[in-house]
Amino acid sequence: MPESPDKAYYVTTPIYYVTAAPSIGSAYTTVVGDVLTRWHRQRGERVWYLTGTDEHGQKVMRAAEANGQTPQAWTDHLVETAWKPVLSTIDVANDQFVRTTDADHTERVQEFWRCLQEGGDVYEGRYEGPYCVGCEEFKLPADLVTVGGVDSCSIHGTAVEMVSEANYFFSMSRYADKLLELYETRPGFVQPESARNEVIAFVKQGLEDLSISRSTFDWGIKVPWDESQVLYVWIDALLNYVTAAGYGTDPERFAGLWPADVHLVGKDILRFHAVIWPAMLMAAGLDVPHQVFAHGWLLVGGEKMSKSKATAIAPEVITDHFGSDAYRYYFAKTIAFGSDGSFSWEHMSAVYTSELANGLGNLASRVTAMVGKYFDGQLPAPAADGPAEKALAETLAATVERADAAIDRLAIHEAVTAVSDLISDINGYVTEQEPWQVAKDTSEEGRARLASILYAAADSLRAVAVLHNPVMPKTCATLWAALGADALGALVAQRVQETGQWGQLPAGVTLTKGQSLFPRLEAAEGVAE
Ligand code: MSP
Q: pTM, whole model, 2 decimals?
């Protein structure tokens, strides 16, 4: 089916299990997705950014039981008090929040599986085998490790449970060839390349049919043709990407969103998204997403940071100390998107001080202070550009291209690094041009030279305010205002593409020094800096 010309750039995060409050591990995808979608919005594209919560299944049910609550009361409470609020803690501008307990979602999921059953893709069978509740996954022998002589999950390190149940099955094996053809003909479908290779190797071994229902507990969506069973949590959860987009309820809206441009997922849930999900969509005759991109894990002591192992850190512990912009900057820049990474308080303090406070913060304060001191705060018109200004203008134009191209490859860290390199170049320019020395020359030429230097520095900072806005929206709004850039219109209306053009800041606007963008850190209680 040809795509609607008005289709939005549609990005999704995984929907998170509501077993506890969010950690920086689960917030990682949401932050990076937010940087990506804000960047696309600044290109002038229509964007849709979806996140939400995965509320059915044994994992959530057991968390609720352990807390003496019904699963519904438990998820209602945690979603409202923790999962939705964390989005403002980390300053995420999602367009929609989906819950799998939403009535709309459950009805559409039932409808979807009824269609597949009627189409002959579902049959009755018996599942016998290992299951990891932590992953909510039926495990293959190759997925298991032995811990203390017991078959265990390689991700969670906990014993798998043996399941033996009469279930319904989805004839997924039928789709193996079509899936291999998909990976072959659309190399961008699974990325990065290592993830693509892993998925191809997995499907080439042969696909088994998938058990799609459970009969030993009832926290889930009822199988529409057999109310004694509930649908397996993953085949309910994956459908959020289409039910939230209007599948089955609003065809016009659905055409304006689907297929998703990218599903951002952690590497632990790659197979669900790159194998099961497209097979389900193919069976239903729906388009598959453009891309599934698998990122790495935040590690602690070499292992995945996790709530169950109590190695998780709450995002607010970090934002309370460093602010949400520094948080976003740290995770978007210092971890290569697609690879594992880690967080440490010491590393984050070092990045904050060297790159943000001494880098961008100091540069903005030096430039605005000098315009205040030497030109009464009025941005002077530049005289003719010299070689240093021409070089800076070229660097600026190249930065925009470099960052924009990195975003297209989902190399988010490279895009942020390109902008932070530009800041170092502007800092270098100011240091080399020594405007404070030039200011001692009060001749007409001296004043003209001083005007050119300060104009070049301020106009470069104007570009930084646009380019860093997807990463640090609060700081960039402050910087924008300090540069008197309001005359250009709102920051959010500035297009990435035009940012690289030199000389956009109107001469004569008033620059203000204001408060420092990144204040000195107070020593955190009990934490060495
Ligand atoms: N509910 C499923 C996803 C269903 S999507 C249709 C699920 N939930 S989860 O809460 O366990 O994990 C959600 C996402 O958070 C996964 O992509 C997972 O990789 C990510 N992370 C959880 N801990 C993480 C780290 N320590 N580091 C990076 N991402 C991690 O799976």
A: 0.96
